[in-house]
Each structure stands twice: as structure tokens, then as C-alpha cells.
Amino acid sequence: MRLAYVLAIMVSLCLSCKNDVDAPQISNDTNITIEDLRKNLEDSHNKEIMVVAHRGDWRNAPENSLQAIQNCIDMGVDMVEIDVRETKDGKLVLMHDETIDRTTTGKGLVKDWTLDSLMMLQLRDGIGHSTPHKIATLEEALALCKDKILVNLDKSYSIFDKCFEVAKKTQTLDQVVIKGSKTRSEVESEFGEYLDDVYFMPILRLPNPNAKELVDDYLQNRLPIAFEFTVQFDTIQFINYFRDIREKGAGVWVNSLWPQHNGGHDDEKAAIDPSVYDWFIENDIDMIQTDRPELLINYLKEKGLHH
Questions:
Q1: Is residue 54 annotated as part of the catalytic site, yes or no?
Q2: Is-contact 265 276, C-beta < 8 A?
Q3: In a domain, 176, yes or no
């Protein structure tokens, strides 16, 4: 009897260990759907703060890689920001820099390489080591994101039309946010035919003496999903207008990446003291692009400001 009891305990422990090994290390334990994410994006009045992961989860996978995107999906990030470049043969790939020197095992301009040639390279991680990961195409990335996470396409304005076609092909048009530092009239003149089918977000760098005029022109004539603001100093008076912008139906996006984006209330300070993020909360910012998505999500959840 004693031997049988011991064997039963051992089998139970083995099964328990196996389950632990098979379990994912990062998981999204919510039941949030892509419809929920879209509704949140379109609602500038609620208290939810959306978390946008800059270049994906690049601390744990190469930036702009499929794995960096998948990590964001798994941890419950609302939106992933990825960068798009065009190759020599007109294909769209994920790459932040104009060159491939920093992030791959190759060298040169993206536009001087064909897609097939780029696929022979490896991506490097955040400290420059070669990894098994490959450069992702925009089509692969959007297919991965479909029905799972919102997507912000950076570096995409000049190839807006080509990005649109890929999003249409992958049936992700209603998940994609395209942005640019353009006035309303410029955007409508250049890409007016697309603006009813995708989310567009203007970018404004503060301080800007014409900021209110530019913002009001959008608010009165073509309400954008949000405005992205770079806030060089936290004493800029225009910050006080953020609440009005949200009341008028547009979200307010500010980056927590580096001090020059947020008046010194950045991710690296938050890594030491997460209450640094209170500045964003107190100033009516409802979309934060971050290099530390897991830290930010956990802090916002503690405050009841993230699903």
C-alpha cells in the first residue's frame, strides 16, 4: 500500500511538471476581442488607457519581428507599432531604419535589396546579436495580427497606397492606423480616397505656435481617430487642451519612449518608479506608446485603467 501511494504521488508530480513546462510564460488572461479594441480606440471618453508597443516587444525578441508582435498579442497589448519600408522589387517589409545595418546581418539600404535577398539574412536582437528570426513582410505581420491586435504603421505615409492594398488583402483595414505629419488639406488631397476605410492619425510636435489651429481644423472637418503629440516640455500650455480634444471625439497619444517625447516622464524613469506614468493619466492622455509594455499594462491595471 505504501509503495502504491508513493508511486501515485510521483505520477501526480510528473504530470504537474509537464503542465508547467507546456504552459506559456506570457499569457493574456482576458477575453478582450478585436471588436472590443476597436470600440475602445473609437471611444475617447472612457477611462481606459490604450497601450501601444513600440516596434513590438523588442526587449524579448528582435524589433519588428513576428515574434515581437506575437509577444504583444500574448501579453494583452492593445496595439503594436511597426515600421514599413519598401524593397528594390516593390515589396513591403518591417524595418525601422532606411538601412539594414543595425538590425540584420546584412548591410545597405532596404531599397537596394530584393525581398528574396533579404530573406537570406538574420535579424539581430536589441544588443546586436544574430538570432534565428527573419525579416517579416507587412503581409505576414498583418496576417498574424488579424482579429487579435490593432496595428500602427509607422514610416508608411509615403507608401500609404501600397500599405492600404496589403491591409485590404489581409482583411485588416479596420485594425490599421496610419499616421503622418500633415495638415488635413494635405492628407485629403493626397489620400482622400482611403480615409473612409482606415484610421488616420495626425502627428504634431509641441511646442508649435499653430498647434490649436491645425488641431481644430481636423476636429471641425475630419475627425481623426487620435492625435499623436510629441511633448518636449511638460510646461507646454497646449497640454491643457488635451481634455477638450478628447471631449470632441479624438484620442490623445503621447509616447513614453524617451524624455524628449514627454517632458521627461519616460519609460526608463518608470522602470525605477512606475508612478512616473501618473503624468500621462493626469493629463488626459488615453494612448501611450511604450518600450516597456508589460510594466505599463501592470501599472494601469493596478489603477483600474486597463482591461
A1: yes
A2: yes
A3: yes
